[in-house]
Amino acid sequence: MIEVLKKYAVPGLCPLTVLILFFCFRTIPSAKLWEGYTVLAVPVEADMSSVEKALDEEGVREYICLENQKREEFPTFAPVILLDDADDYSKKKLSYFFDRDRKSTIFYIPDSFKNEAAKACRVMKEKHQISPVLDTTSRFPWITSFVCILLALSFLAFSSNREIYFLGAFFSIAFIASNPFYINGAAVCIGLYGYFLLQKVWRRKGFVKYLLKNPFAIVFVTVPVLLTFFVSFKSGVFYILALAGTFASLFITSRIEDDYESSLRFCPVPIRPARYMGVTSCRTMRTMMFSSMAIFALIIFFFVSVPFSSAGAKSSSSSDGVLLLPGPVEYTGTSPDFPGIDDYVIWKWNKTTESYRSIRDTDISYPKEGDTVSIPRYRRTENGIQSFTEIAFTFDKAFREGVISGIDTLGYPAIEKLWKNQRRKFSVSYASQAGEHLSTFSLVILILSMFVPLGMTVYYILGWKKN
After folding, report:
1. Cα 418 to chain centroid, rounded
2. pTM beyond cutoff 0.85
3. Distance between CA atoms of residues 432 and 323, nearest Å
4. Which of 120-134, 241-255, 329-343, 405-419 has the lowest mean pLDDT?
5. Is the Cβ–Cβ distance between 177 and 144 less than 8 Å?
6. Which of 30, 123, 124, 235 qualifies as a FRET site for 172, CA 20 to 30 Å off?
């Protein structure tokens, strides 16, 4: 009994552990726009006092909204105010508090209050007939799992050793069900063909050595691993766990088959070793196109379900009823409609130094590195009163860091705190609050993954003609 446990139960812990990890740490893609903050959008015609009352009653003690923005205090002894309080920076900040069509007002709620915010939304609906939207609302993207399952069934129909292919595909399907991102779906579509090749040579003499050297097997195992790491480190690790679960299951299956064959008086053995079977043929090449077709379907569904947005460009999807909210995108420079940290630093410089500058100084809006503001001073010396110039302010790294660190000391929930909380430089554009966002990077990765089976087909054709 102990020997049986060592032989089957101990290796069986690996696939079981993998499935438990997939279930416990599954991820549902959500288009959370801002790191550390949950976005709440309510119709502009809604009673804001009712919205704020619902938030307060449910325990949301802090949030950023248009009503609680304040002016920063600056020295008031300047004889002339050079900059109008209603400058471009202050006016552009208003864009953060409305959707693209100006039909919704936006609140930014720290993630520490996201559960309370969800409760407040229910109160708004039930008591005040207000229809709020939270960007944490997420729906499971069944389409990625559906496409992968459909592809797996297609390969299963063409498999000669269906039990082995099922074991190989099972953990890949479990992986995509727990991490249903589109790039992960493309990785699984490629990996499923690798298991289709495996079942063709399973248990033939030298099949492991043959697969380790076969370029098709290598590509259709390693490329999916690389693709999943493009999504996240967690996705990459989970895909490796899926491979581990698959190989452990196949190892157990091999032992079971060995025990069964040893009990037979006569056991048929495949005559042709794996190296003479070949995993590629004209038929398998046609079957491989299923992977490209499945990835192409993922790209189409991605375009249909996710509005494409890029910095500085406005999406036309809002006319379809999609709520487009200000959100960070890949950094391409200053956003024309949305100020950011860099704009705040420049605005702070102008406001801080305006009392010390000449009213004839017109080149003040965009300071350059190393710009200074000097103050004439006088001191008593042995030779009488002498004048000298003191540098009061220098626009340099120290000034910028001081301004950014000072955001935390602002005595109100300023929109600048939202910007500082992001851990990377970003531009801002309007984006959808539902589903996984389609970035240029992910689109390129999906297209390249679609060409992996096509590229291997070209490789096969060139090798066939050469031979």
Report:
1. 18
2. no
3. 6
4. 329-343
5. no
6. 30
